[in-house]
Specification:
Number of strands: 0
Number of helices: 6
Shape: elongated
Order of helices and strands: HHHHHH
Structural class: mainly alpha
Distance between the termini: 50 Å
Radius of gyration: 16 Å
Helix content: 55-70%
Strand content: under 5%
Largest sheet: none
Length: 125
């Protein structure tokens, strides 16, 4: 059985439950893969965690049977990925459904999107 490559950070908000599991393995939290899968934790869910209330965080930790230290590791790694996305520190890849002749187009659009996200963050008070 070949081990799949972890998903790319650029795409973290569209990760599937399986992508999240691969990422958990990469950050040494693989013990939570099954419970995350059972709870349907995908990239969109990870993205929304930044807006959780304290009560929602505690509910998530209980539901996933996480240790506090592991939850903190999860949050730090998630922040690292978000920062990498904003700074554009990862490779841009063409969506699987797009023809290869459009690769240059997707790279340009991705770079433009990154720049607009960074500019909008700088403008916020």
């Amino acid at each position: 059985m070949t081990k799949e490559l972890p998903p790319e950070p650029l795409d973290f908000f569209i990760w599937t439950v399986e992508d999240v599991g691969l990422w958990l393995e990469e950050i040494n939290l693989g013990g939570y893969c099954q419970v995350f899968k059972e709870n349907g934790v995908n990239g969109e869910y990870l993205e929304s965690m930044s807006m959780f209330t304290t009560e929602q965080i505690l509910r998530f930790i209980r539901r996933c049977h996480m240790k506090w230290g592991d939850f903190i590791t999860l949050c730090k790694e998630l922040r690292r990925i978000k920062v990498a996305c904003l700074k554009g520190e990862q490779k841009v890849r063409r969506p699987w459904w797009a023809p290869s002749c459009l690769s240059v187009f997707f790279v340009r659009v991705a770079k433009r999107n990154r720049q607009s996200r960074v500019v909008s963050l700088k403008l916020e008070p």
